[in-house]
């Protein structure tokens, strides 16, 4: 017996770990070993939350990395290293334009305004890819809060059951599902394409 596929009117992508790879996490693994201890991860998560919500600036975020974790690089250099090492997911880049019969958006927890810069430099900031871009530091709301997802859904004018969130972090997908959305934990473009077959994009 064939299952009825959920009808999806909006597909919402994360940026880091989905549309682009590398960048911040690679930087942490190379330059901030103290960030990777149990206590370090807790402190880093708290700082990430603050910068994602726009409570501190990107510059202040890097200063805290210097102060708390002993990172030796100046803020501008940290920014350059993160942005320059973000690589586009080529498979996904070719797949996204084929999904345009539905609304395609991006919702990213961003370090300051870095997401806009990355999209511009990788030529992903025009309507061929995303009809709307939602940046946590601009909105002062962030994943995985259900209020953040509801705001995005309201702006896209779709119901939760009509939206599909694509994110590499399981807890962000958990938050999306708690808001009534569908979700795919992204691993690679092939896995995503296979998972997408379970939905009816309208």
What would you say about this model in short?
The chain is α/β, with parallel strands linked by helices and 202 residues long. Helices cover 45% and strands 16% of the residues.
Description:
- With 202 residues, the protein is of the alpha/beta class.
- It has 10 helices and 9 strands.
- The chain has helices at residues 24-31, 38-52, 58-69, 75-84, 90-95, 114-121, 136-139, 146-156, 170-178, 189-196; strands at residues 7-8, 10-13, 20-22, 86-88, 103-108, 132-135, 163-167, 182-185, 200-201.
- Strands 6-5-2-7-8 form a 5-stranded parallel β-sheet, with helices on both faces. A two-stranded parallel ribbon has the order 1-9.
- Strand 7 (163-167), helix 9 (170-178) and strand 8 (182-185) form a beta-alpha-beta unit.
- Helix 2 (38-52) runs antiparallel to helix 3 and helix 3 (58-69) packs across helix 4.
- It is globular, with a radius of gyration of 17 Å.
- The model has no long low-confidence stretch (mean pLDDT 94).
